[in-house]
Design goal:
- This protein has about 200 residues and is of the alpha+beta class.
- Helices cover about 45% and strands about 15% of the residues.
- It is built from eight helices and eight strands; from the N terminus they run ααβββαβαααααββββ.
- The chain starts with a helix and ends in a 6-residue tail after the last strand.
């Protein structure tokens, strides 16, 4: 089974286990801390740094890089949760996840996308309406994901082709400003949900 399929099935199993249906996970931090008994902390890091997971004894800590983009922080937390779900941390050694692209990383990426934006939710939003950038915007706002994640999930659902997916992944969320009090993120946005850009803001 491919990493994409394993990640999708893992995310579905996680949602089913915890009775989450296909609803948006608006308070992802609380879900992770309560359902998985993990702590989440904000760390300073380089531009390439997104997140890491540390397990020591009976304690698991997810570290997420400080960022002006809470969509990235949410996807990073979901990605690290994928590593925990698939038991990628079997020993007490801290394993950083800054830039590695192993099969486990690919699987965790898929887990994160399907956890934050299940295909069932994509299909529900798309029912009886035109598949356009307004639909993309609705998915971004409702599920608090990047335009790149929403575009990939639309492609995975068979609703857009590869060319459209590539084009829409270049859209970004505009100037969301996270404020961290050490464990929570407060998100503020301007009126426009997405905008054109030269690079993905996933």
């Amino acid at each position: 089974m491919s990493g994409e399929a394993l990640g999708r099935h893992g995310a579905q199993a996680f949602r089913e286990k915890h009775g989450l249906g296909s609803q948006p996970l608006l308070d992802l931090i609380t879900v992770v801390e309560q359902k998985c008994e993990c702590d989440i902390t904000v760390l300073d890091g380089s531009d390439e740094a997104h997140g890491m997971t540390v397990r020591h004894g009976g304690t698991t800590i997810i570290g997420v890089a400080r960022s002006r983009n809470p969509m990235r922080q949410r996807s990073t937390i979901a990605h690290e949760l994928g590593h925990i779900w698939f038991d990628d941390l079997r020993d007490a050694t801290a394993r950083t996840r800054w830039a590695e692209r192993s099969p486990e990383e690919v699987r965790a990426d898929a887990f994160a996308r399907h956890l934050l934006l299940p295909l069932e939710a994509v299909e529900s939003h798309a029912r009886s309406r035109e598949v356009d950038e307004r639909l993309l915007s609705d998915l971004v706002q409702t599920h608090r994901v990047s335009a790149a994640i929403a575009a990939i999930q639309l492609r995975e659902a068979g609703l857009i082709d590869e060319r459209t997916c590539v084009d829409w992944t270049r859209l970004t969320t505009p100037d969301w400003r996270p404020v961290s009090d050490g464990r929570r993120f407060i998100e503020r946005s301007r009126s426009s949900p997405i905008r054109r850009a030269h690079r993905s803001d996933c």
